[in-house]
């Protein structure tokens, strides 16, 4: 049960078990597991845990709660002037925000916002980028090559307006966007294609103070470029060559 | 802002469609029947309030996120987690087609599992419940618990390992 003795493929074995791995990666993983005793043990534990959880009860809603909820929701139907619940009145004073922002404004995302900044933002960016490539479902939340579609999608999901640039003319067609969490903060991610490579562009406000050093660097075959632009920290990460990624940065900043 | 009452029928439909999931999650998180009732009611009112900003994608994850956050706030406010369902033996079980002995065995298994899962840290438990009972994808779980997918993956794995270990220990007794 010692974590240090686990194979680094453990979470991928689990992702495969949960049906979260794309077919091509799953095939390669099967080969690995065949020769890795640790991963075979992981598979057994996964099966065992699922078998155990098959017995877990799914609680059913008590009838009283169901009727109470129906009544409560019905009571919300009349005109706003009839609303008397403090909860609802408080809501009516809330500014017009998207629900995510409204949630953040209350208690909920407080955990996320107050998480102290982490020093290894680069490592997190790399991990996020790599994971997005491994888990097909996580690469893109909004799939579009049209910045008119991608840009509004971020409204209410992040509290800044990410610049969505179309670079198809420069050989970097926009694929879409997603949100991710880096250093405990929700950030916007734009995904571009460059030939057979993917460039992830991470954006967050400078004031988020997630990390400071704008420096190009190379890590495990990936290149990272980071700069500050209009109050936003822009981080590009890709397995493109350093030269090509630099060209991407120039084309981006030229817009 | 004023509640647009024309939205309400849609919200009722959404709430009804996902009430079972919402309740199940609340119950597993707070492990107390009365508190779970409370959490679900509060969450539904909040959801109604935020409904105008809801964009129509993945209603269940959206609603569960609210339920989860209300539940966590309650747990924190109450200091530590509650000791557990005092009436865990009365776990509601669908047993209509089983014979009496099977029913007893199933109830015994369920009680054991209920205790094992209840013994896990709530951050690990919620990932297991969302994955194995509600069958959410990693991405949906990440949204509900407000953590990156990588964190969800490692919590799931830790939860599963602990569960298997705990079950083994119990069997050995």
Gist of the model:
The complex is a heterodimer of chains A (255) and B (173). With 255 residues, chain A is an alpha+beta fold.
Characterization of this structure:
The complex is a heterodimer of chains A (about 260) and B (about 170). With about 260 residues, chain A is α+β, with helices and mostly antiparallel strands. Chain A folds into two domains: about 5-55, no CATH class; about 120-255, MucB/RseB, C-terminal domain (Phosphorylase Kinase, domain 1), CATH 3.30.200. Helix content of chain A is about 45%, strand content about 20%. Chain A contains eleven helices and seven strands. Chain A has a seven-stranded antiparallel sheet with strand order 1-2-3-4-7-6-5, with helices on both faces. The relative contact order of chain A is 0.09. The model of chain A is unreliable at about 80-120 and about 210-215 (pLDDT under 50). Chain B is mostly helical. Chain B folds into two domains: about 1-85, Rna Polymerase Sigma Factor, Chain: A (Orthogonal Bundle); about 95-175, Arc Repressor Mutant, subunit A (Orthogonal Bundle). Chain B has helices at about 10-30, 35-50, 60-75, 100-120, 120-135, 140-145, 150-170. The longest helix of chain B has 24 residues, at about 150-170. Chain B is globular, with a radius of gyration of 17 Å. Chain B starts with 7 loop residues before the first helix and ends with a helix. At the A-B interface, α1, α3, α4, α5 and α6 of A face α1, α2, α3, α4 and α5 of B.
């Amino acid at each position: 049960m010692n974590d240090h003795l686990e194979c680094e493929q453990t979470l991928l074995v689990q992702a495969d078990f949960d049906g979260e791995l794309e077919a091509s990666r799953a095939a390669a993983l099967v080969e690995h597991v065949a020769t890795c005793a640790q991963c075979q043990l992981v598979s057994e534990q996964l099966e065992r845990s699922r078998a155990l959880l098959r017995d877990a009860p799914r609680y059913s809603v008590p009838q009283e709660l169901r009727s109470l909820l129906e009544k409560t929701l019905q009571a919300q139907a009349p005109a706003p002037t009839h609303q008397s619940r403090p909860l609802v009145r408080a809501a009516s004073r809330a500014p017009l925000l998207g629900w995510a922002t409204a949630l953040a404004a209350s208690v909920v995302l407080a955990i996320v916002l107050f998480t102290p900044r982490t020093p290894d933002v680069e490592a997190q960016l790399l991990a996020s980028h790599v994971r997005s490539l491994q888990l097909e479902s996580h690469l893109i939340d909004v799939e579009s090559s049209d910045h008119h579609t991608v840009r509004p999608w971020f409204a209410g999901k992040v509290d800044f307006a990410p610049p969505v640039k179309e670079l198809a003319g420069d050989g970097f067609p926009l694929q879409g966007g997603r949100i991710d969490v880096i250093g405990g903060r929700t950030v916007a991610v734009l995904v571009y294609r460059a030939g057979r490579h993917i460039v992830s562009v991470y954006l967050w406000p400078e004031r988020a103070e997630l990390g400071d050093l704008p420096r190009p660097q190379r890590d495990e075959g990936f290149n990272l470029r980071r700069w500050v632009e209009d109050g936003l920290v822009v981080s590009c990460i890709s397995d493109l060559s350093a030269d090509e990624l630099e060209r991407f940065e120039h084309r981006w900043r030229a817009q | 802002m004023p509640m647009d009452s024309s939205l309400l029928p849609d919200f009722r439909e959404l709430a009804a469609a996902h009430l079972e999931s919402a309740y199940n999650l609340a119950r597993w998180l707070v492990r107390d029947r009365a508190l779970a009732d409370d959490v679900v009611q509060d969450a539904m009112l909040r959801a109604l309030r935020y409904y105008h900003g809801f964009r129509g994608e993945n209603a269940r994850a959206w609603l569960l996120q609210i339920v989860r956050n209300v539940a966590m706030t309650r747990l924190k406010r109450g200091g530590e987690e509650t000791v557990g369902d005092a009436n865990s033996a009365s776990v509601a079980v669908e047993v209509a087609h089983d014979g009496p002995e099977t029913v007893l065995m199933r109830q015994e298994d369920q009680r054991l599992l209920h205790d094992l899962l209840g013994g896990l840290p709530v951050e690990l438990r919620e990932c297991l419940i969302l994955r194995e009972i509600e069958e959410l994808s990693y991405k949906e779980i990440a949204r509900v618990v407000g953590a990156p997918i990588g964190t969800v993956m490692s919590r799931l794995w830790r939860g599963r390992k602990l569960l298997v270990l705990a079950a083994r220990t119990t069997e050995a007794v």
